[in-house]
Amino acid sequence: MTRVVRGATAxxxxxIALCLLLAALGLVYTARxxxxxxxxxxxxxxxxxxxxxxxxxxxxxxxxxxxxxxxx
Length: 72
Known about the structure:
Mean pLDDT: 85
Number of domains: 2
Number of strands: 0
Largest sheet: none
Distance between the termini: 76 Å
Number of helices: 3
Radius of gyration: 26 Å
Order of helices and strands: HHH
Helix content: 55-70%
């Protein structure tokens, strides 16, 4: 640990450049791999029976948020 501190304080410009490079790499990686999941079904655990049944219902009936039940 002492060697790292000595190296960082001996060459502060190199330390800052390395930190900026790592931050830029982190931003590029995040921008390429970050995705948004808008489907609530995809956030559920896929191995559960109720999730599989719900996916089956979605295939049969379409988007279940659009169902209206009217009783006369």
